[in-house]
Amino acid sequence: MPLLKETERRSTKNVADLLDELTTTGKASLEVGKATSAGITALVGQVKRVADAADAEKQSVGGGTATKAAGAAFNPFTASVGALGGDRLRVTFPKGAELIADPSVKMYQCKFTYLKDKKLDPTKSKTSEAVAADTERTFSCVVPAWADKGKMPDEPNFTTNFEVLENNRVMPAPSGGQVIKWTPQSPSLKFKNVKDGSGNVLTGKLSGGRGAPTKFTVDISILYDYGEVGYKDVKFTAATDKGWAKIITQISFSGTDTSAERKMGFTVTHPKSGKEEQSYWIDVTITSSKYKLNTKHRLNFDFKAGEEMGLGGEKNVLAPDQMATLYTKLGVRGKNNLKLCYSPKIHGYSSGTMHSRCDGRGRLFLLMRRNKNGRMFGGHLPQSLDTRNNWVRGSTSSAWLWTVNPGRSNKIDFLIKKSSHGYLYYFHSGYQLTWGGGHDLYCNSGLTSCNANVGHDYDTNGRGYHTNGANGAKVYMTGDYSWNHRESGTHGMVYEVYTFQ
């Protein structure tokens, strides 16, 4: 009789249901045993007697109703869940209040009803998916999302009444009921790629010049599961150490407000007297405008002072913004696209060595800096060199010269070949890289004799060809018409040839 009592309390099946189930079971048994129709009749009578006994037991013990189950209440507990759902709640019953622990029987659910000022609002409720009991005393349910997908809850924090359902019947709750606290998700973020000013993804230390600003960007992904409405809701702020107020500047955020993908830009101006390597950080706080909840995330990065024009080159020759201008003109993304093929400081003073190391390896870029006056200049050859001693003619503008103009805040000026002149550059095994028929830029094999006859074939941006004054064409690019590139001085002589495709 106790078994009948437990079966009735845990099920809403009526006598007809039990009769049908046991009749089916009896038929299966009789088919296996090849029983007669008389056996079926006897079994039906047995089923009816069992069902009658169950009804009698229900009347005698108060086994519940069609909407409420009898038995002991589940154990009280405290819990705070997220409004987006997904949390798992475990409900435990005391001894003597056994559940039906059958993995194939999913009949237990958690129901949440909005509660405010001790009043329930049955129009606002959520019910979890039905699950099977883990043991005879416990089961766990997955909390459903309170708000619809793509919608944020109206309140940042609220409470609900908690009920347990067994086969759609409400089970007894602890004295005083059970209250669950709900909280919204706090927005978060993830730092992804750090890029230089040319858009190259950086994998190690950030680098740049001393005393000159270097720009970087960081890709950010918003972690906020409310969709577009959530992405519109968030705001960003950033801060860094007070002592770095003049070092880390121009912090800004960009991107579409309906997208999870954003960008943070910032500028590092490493002090001229600073260490060669320095660790910096930026704190980024993402805040929900609606809920005023926020999280703080720190971007740590190591900065190395000094940056080369290309791989293998000398650091701190050009400022980062000057190199960025040249990269754009060359059509490359950054220093990783340029490879040093010749430097006299490394490979010796010989044009023969330069040609053996650089000829036939692709386009060439020349970077020069004079010892005496610190002027920086050079040129671009749009094709591979060979050992033929001949002129290259043409009207193409892909061959050009460049110079850092001190009169224009150290901006880069480009000198393009005049359309009326035919000489682009000269291939000669006894010369270093040479442009123009005059020559507009030339150095001998050992770099002891160089000249800039600028204006012969390359335009000087309005300066007359025969002008020799301080701003004249012959000193416009290099500071002097002729010089020894191995001259003494304080700036450091640079002659670097880079190859690239």
Description:
By secondary structure, the protein is of the alpha+beta class. The chain has 4 domains: 2-61; 80-183, Immunoglobulin-like; 188-305, Zona pellucida, ZP-C domain (Immunoglobulin-like); 320-500, no CATH class. It has helices at residues 2-9, 15-33, 37-61, 228-233, 320-330, 344-347, 351-358, 473-476, and strands spanning 80-82, 88-92, 108-116, 119-127, 138-142, 158-166, 169-170, 179-183, 188-196, 201-202, 206-208, 214-223, 234-239, 248-254, 261-268, 277-288, 294-305, 339-342, 363-369, 376-381, 390-393, 400-405, 411-416, 423-427, 434-435, 442-443, 450-451, 482-483, 494-500. The strands form 7 sheets. Strands 1, 3, 4, 6, 7 and 8 form a 6-stranded mixed sheet that branches. It has a 6-stranded antiparallel sheet with strand order 18-29-19-20-22-23, with helices on both faces. Strands 10-9-12-15-14 form a 5-stranded antiparallel sheet, with no helix packed on it. The longest helix has 25 residues, at 37-61. The radius of gyration is 41 Å and the shape is rod-shaped.
